[in-house]
Design goal:
Oligomer: heterodimer
Number of strands of chain A: 2
CATH topology of the largest domain in chain B: Rossmann fold
CATH architecture of the largest domain in chain A: Orthogonal Bundle
CATH superfamily of the largest domain in chain B: P-loop containing nucleotide triphosphate hydrolases
Radius of gyration of chain B: 20 Å
Distance between the termini of chain B: 25 Å
CATH topology of the largest domain in chain A: MetI-like fold
Bound molecules: adenosine-5'-triphosphate, iron/sulfur cluster, magnesium ion
Structural class of chain B: alpha/beta
Number of helices of chain B: 8
Order of helices and strands of chain A: HHHHEEHHHHHHHHHH
CATH superfamily of the largest domain in chain A: MetI-like
Strand order of the largest sheet of chain B: 6-7-8-3-9-10-12-11
Chain lengths: 325, 306
C-alpha cells in the first residue's frame, strides 16, 4: 500500500512540475524579453533575412503551446538548450552553479535545523521566561527582515567594518583555480551561510517552540507527571519524541524558503551559485537558462515536500496504520 | 475499615483569570471548602454532574493544577502534607492516577513502555497485562490502536504498576458499555478488597452504587453530603441533603424524576447554601454559609438535615 502512495505522490509531483514549467514558459514568452535581441545583441548588423532565419530555426513565431511542447520533448531527451549568458549548455551551467549553491544551502539547512530545534525546545519549555521572550522578539524581527538586508548587515559589520571575512565570491580573487584550497572556500562561505542560517532559523525556532508549548499543555504530560516522571524524563520521553517528527518534516517542507533565501544571499555576496546565475540570466534575457533554473528549483522544492510527506507516512504510527489498512 | 490514607480539609481552588470585560484578573472560585477522606480498602465515590469541578478536585489532590490556580486548604497522605515538591516519590508508586481517557497516553509511545513508566519494570508490566487479559501484542501497540475496553485495562495496569495504596480515578467508565463498565468496577473492587484506597470520581451515581463503600455528593464545587452506599440502598429517608434526595429520585429505578433548575455558575454563587435556589425546604436558616455537620454517621451541609 505504501508504495502506491509514494507512486501517487510521484505522479502528482510530475504533473506539478509540468504545470510549473508551463507557467514559467508562458511568463517568459509573454515578457518584454525578445529572445532574438537577447541572442544577437541590440546593435546587431544582421540582415533581416538572417534574423528571419534564426526566428524560424528556433520556431519563435509558432504558438506558445507548440514551443513549450518542443521544449518539453527536448528536456525529456536531456537537452535543456544553450545558455545565452554563459555560451554553454544550460545543463552544465546548472550543474556547476548548483554544486556551489548546494553546499551553501546544505550547511545553512543543517545549522538552522539543529540550532533552531534546540533553541525552540528550550524556549517552549521555559515559555514566558525572559530567555523565551527575548528569543521570540529576535525571531519575529528577523522574520520580518528581508534576507538581502540581513546579508547586507552582516557584510557591512563583519566584512567591511571588522574585516573578519571576505566581501564576496566563492574563492579569493586573482587566485588560480588550482591554488584554491578547501579553507579558502570555507572562509568565503562563512558569511553567506550565517546569513542564510539566520534568515531560516526564526521559522524553525517559532514552530518548534509553539509545538513544545502545545505538547507541554497536553493531557499526556499531566499523566506523565502524575506517574512520577521528573522534568528531565518528561522532556526526553515525551516532549522530544512528539516534537521531533513535525520539526524534521517542516525542515524538508521549507525547501522553497531556503531556495529563495539562497538566491538573495548569493546576490549580496556575489557567490557564484544558482542565485547569481538567475539574476544574470534575467538581466540578459537568457530564456533557456531561466527555464532550466525554474525547472530545477521546482524539482528541488517538490523533492523536499515529497520527502516530508513520505517521512510522515513512515514515522507517524497513526498515519502509517491508516495507509496500511 | 483501615486507617485514613488521604485527607482533604477545607480545600479551596480558584482560577486567576480575566472575566467579562474587566481588565483586572479576578479569582474565580471553583472549589469551596471541600473536605473528604479515603481510608485503606475503601472506595469513596465522588458523584457530581458535568462541569461541577470534579476533575479539578482530582488535579488538586495530584498536584497537577495549572499555574493560574490558587489553592488553599490541607491535603495530607498518611498524615503528611502531599505535594510534588515535598513528596515526589509517592506519585506513580504509592499514589496513582487513572485518567479519563487514552488521550492521557503519549500518542507516539508504545503502550507497554508507557505502562512501565519510569518507576516500573518490564516483568511487572507483562504480569499485569496477563492478569488483565491484554494479549501479548498489546505492549507493542500505540494508544490509538486500543479499543475502549483495552484502554481501560491498560490504564489500570499503569495505575497498579507500583502497587499503589491510593488510586485516584477520574471518570473511569465513560464510553464503555455496561458490561465493560461493570468489569472495570469489578477490578476496582478487587483492588480495594486487597487494601487499596480508591477515590473514584464519576457522574454516574448508579454505577457508583455498585462498588463504592461511601458516596460523596458533589454540588457546585463542594461536597454537600457524604453517605454510606447502604443509605442509598435503604431509601430516600436514610439520606440527609435535599440535593441527595433529589438525585435519588432522579435514578431510573426510582422513577426518573428530574431536578428542576441548574447548578449555579462558579462566578455567581449565592452567599448562603449553594443549593438554596432549587431547594423546596429553603427558609431563613439557609441564608448563611452551611458548615459541614455530622448527622447519623454521615456528613452534610444543610441547616435542616436530621
Ligand atoms: N485552568 C482553568 N482556568 C479556568 N477555569 C477552569 C480551568 N480548568 C477548569 N476550569 C473550569 O472549572 C469548571 C469545572 O471543570 P471540571 O473539568 O473539573 O468539571 P468536571 O466536574 O470534571 O466535569 P466533567 O464531568 O465534564 O468531567 C469548568 O467549568 C471549567 O470551565
Ligand atoms: S440549607 Fe436550606 S436551602 Fe440548603 S439544602 Fe438545606 S434546606 Fe435546602
Ligand atoms: Mg472531568
Amino acid at each position: 500500500m505504501r508504495t502506491r502512495n509514494i507512486l501517487y505522490e510521484l505522479i502528482r509531483m510530475l504533473l506539478l512540475l509540468i504545470l510549473v514549467s508551463f507557467l514559467a514558459f508562458v511568463l517568459i514568452a509573454k515578457s518584454p524579453i525578445d529572445p532574438l535581441v537577447s541572442y544577437i545583441g541590440t546593435n546587431s548588423t544582421l540582415s533581416p533575412e538572417a534574423k528571419q532565419e534564426i526566428v524560424e530555426h528556433w520556431g519563435l513565431n509558432e504558438p506558445v503551446f507548440t514551443r513549450f511542447f518542443k521544449w518539453l520533448v527536448n528536456i525529456l531527451h536531456g537537452d535543456m538548450g544553450t545558455s545565452i549568458t554563459y555560451k554553454k549548455a544550460v545543463s552544465s551551467v546548472i550543474i556547476e552553479r548548483f554544486s556551489y549553491s548546494i553546499v551553501l544551502m546544505l550547511l545553512a539547512w543543517i545549522l538552522s535545523g539543529i540550532l533552531g530545534f534546540v533553541i525552540g525546545v528550550i524556549c517552549g519549555i521555559k515559555q514566558g521566561g525572559i530567555y523565551d521572550r527575548i528569543t521570540k522578539l529576535f525571531c519575529l524581527m528577523v522574520k520580518s527582515a528581508p534576507t538581502f538586508w540581513l546579508g547586507l548587515m552582516f557584510l557591512v559589520i563583519f566584512a567591511v567594518s571588522l574585516g573578519w571575512f571576505p566581501i564576496g565570491m566563492a574563492v579569493p580573487m586573482g587566485k588560480l583555480k588550482s591554488e584554491v584550497t578547501v579553507w579558502d572556500r570555507l572562509y568565503h562561505l562563512v558569511l553567506p551561510v550565517i546569513t542564510l542560517t539566520v534568515a531560516n532559523i526564526s521559522e524553525v525556532v517559532l514552530y518548534t517552540r509553539q509545538r513544545v508549548v502545545e505538547i507541554i499543555g497536553s493531557d499526556y504530560i499531566l499523566y506523565a507527571r502524575a506517574r512520577g516522571e521528573n522534568q528531565g524524563q518528561i522532556i526526553r520521553r515525551h516532549v522530544l519524541r512528539n516534537v521531533m517528527l513535525p520539526a524534521i518534516t517542516l525542515q524538508f517542507a521549507s525547501f522553497s524558503e531556503l531556495f529563495g533565501g539562497m538566491a538573495l544571499a548569493e546576490n549580496v555576496f556575489a557567490y557564484p551559485g544558482i542565485g547569481t546565475a538567475t539574476t544574470a540570466a534575467a538581466l540578459s534575457g537568457d530564456a533557456p537558462l531561466l527555464m532550466g533554473i525554474a525547472l530545477i528549483s521546482a524539482l528541488f522544492v517538490f523533492t523536499g515536500n515529497l520527502i516530508a510527506n513520505i517521512l510522515y507516512g513512515i514515522c507517524d504510527p497513526r498515519i502509517r496504520e491508516k495507509e496500511e489498512s | 475499615m483501615g486507617k485514613t490514607l488521604l485527607n482533604v480539609e477545607d480545600l479551596v481552588v480558584a482560577f486567576s483569570m480575566y472575566r467579562g470585560d474587566s481588565l483586572k484578573k479576578e479569582n474565580l472560585e471553583v472549589i469551596h471548602s471541600l473536605s473528604l477522606d479515603v481510608k485503606e480498602g475503601e472506595i469513596l465515590a465522588v458523584v457530581g454532574s458535568s462541569g461541577s469541578g470534579k476533575s479539578i478536585l482530582a488535579s488538586a489532590v495530584l498536584d497537577l493544577l495549572p499555574k493560574n490556580a490558587v489553592v488553599s486548604g490541607k491535603i495530607t497522605y498518611d498524615g503528611k502534607p502531599l505535594s510534588m515538591k515535598t513528596t515526589p516519590d509517592l506519585y506513580g508508586k504509592e499514589i496513582s492516577f487513572i485518567p479519563q481517557s487514552v488521550d492521557y497516553l503519549d500518542p507516539l509511545m508504545k503502550v507497554g513502555k508507557q505502562v512501565q513508566g519510569v518507576k516500573g519494570s518490564k516483568a511487572r508490566q507483562e504480569e499485569l497485562f496477563e492478569k488483565y487479559r491484554l494479549g501479548k501484542d498489546t505492549e507493542k501497540k500505540y494508544p490509538f490502536q486500543l479499543s475502549g475496553g483495552m484502554a481501560r485495562r491498560v490504564l489500570i495496569s499503569g495505575a497498579v504498576m507500583g502497587n499503589p495504596k491510593l488510586i485516584i480515578a477520574d471518570e473511569p467508565t465513560p464510553g464503555l458499555d455496561l458490561e465493560l463498565a461493570m468489569e472495570t468496577l469489578k477490578h476496582f473492587r478487587t483492588l480495594a478488597d486487597q487494601g487499596t484506597g480508591i477515590l473514584m470520581i464519576t457522574h454516574d451515581i448508579d454505577l457508583a452504587l455498585n462498588v463504592a463503600d461511601r458516596i460523596a455528593v458533589f454540588y457546585a464545587g463542594t461536597i454537600v453530603e457524604i453517605a454510606s452506599t447502604q443509605d442509598f440502598l435503604s431509601g430516600r429517608d436514610a439520606l440527609r441533603h435535599p440535593y441527595t434526595k433529589a438525585l435519588y429520585d432522579a435514578l431510573p429505578q426510582n422513577g426518573f424524576k428530574p431536578i428542576p433548575g441548574a447548578q449555579p455558575y462558579a462566578g455567581s454563587l449565592p452567599s448562603g447554601c449553594l443549593f438554596a435556589d432549587r431547594c423546596p425546604y429553603r427558609d431563613d436558616a439557609c441564608a448563611g454559609a452551611q458548615p459541614e455537620r455530622e448527622v447519623r454517621g454521615g456528613k452534610v451541609r444543610c441547616a435542616h438535615a436530621t
